[in-house]
Amino acid sequence: MFRFHKGVDVITLFHKPSIPASARVLTLLKQASAHASETATEDQATDHTHQNKFQRTEFQLNVTEDPPTGDQLRTILDYMGANSAGKLVEGAKDRDDAMSKLKIDLGKFKRPVTVDWMNGRAVTGDDESEIMSMIAQIPKEQETVFPKE
Fold first, then answer.
1. How far apart are CA 28 and CA 128, in angstroms?
2. 3 state DSSP class of 39
3. What local confidence, expressed as pLDDT, does residue 40 receive?
4. 10 Å Cβ neighbour count for 50?
5. What are the beta bridge partners of residue 12?
6. What is the C-alpha separation between 102 and 67, in angstroms, rounded?
7. Is 129 helix (H, G, I), strand (E, B) or coil?
8. Per-residue confidence (pLDDT) for residue 145, from 0 to 100
9. Where are the alpha helices (DSSP H) in 8-48?
10. How high does pLDDT run on average in the chain?
11. 22, 93, 104: which is closest to 70 by C-alpha?
12. Is the pLDDT assigned to residue 63 strictly greater than 90?
């Protein structure tokens, strides 16, 4: 059998260090990433409750202080739905309005925004349960198996 491994999921945090909510999300994502990459070793006790609690695959955390590009913003709006423009861009009524406002003033982009590009999800703000739900939905099995011909 041949196995093709899917790349690691990328989660991007559009971050602004001066915003307390953004700092909280960054800490949460760093902790989740660390827990996801933990593995049990032979030296550890047989109780693996901690690892089982965090059953999710590893992910690559990408933190940027830049606002999204036009293509990224369109994609995020697709993930969140048409009525989410105002959650992403200050004063935006719809997708087109969000795009034009962001072109005029990059500072209108509201942070933090956490995006799972591989699975098509995005979360605005620092809602821990929403972010953890998004991370938990990253598929644990990251490979596709093709039978030998």
1. 8
2. coil
3. 37
4. 11
5. 62, 115
6. 9
7. helix
8. 45
9. 20-37
10. 82
11. 104
12. yes
Higher pLDDT, 37 or 54: 37
Distance (Å, rounded) from C-alpha 124 to C-alpha 122? 7
CB atoms within 10 A of CB 138: 19
Residues in CB range of 118: below 8 A, 6 or more apart: 9, 10, 138
Total Cβ atoms within 10 A of residue 143: 8
66-86 per-position pLDDT tens digit: 999 999 999 999 999 878 999
Give the integer Cα–Cα distance in Å for 98 and 105. 10
Q: Distance between CA atoms of 73 and 88, rounded to whole angstroms?
A: 9
Q: What is the pLDDT of residue 58?
A: 81
Whole-model pTM?
A: 0.78
CA distances from 94 to 62, 82, 110 (A): 27, 7, 15
Identity at 148, one-letter amino acid code: K
Structure tokens at 117: 């590009």
For residue 41, what pLDDT is reported? 43
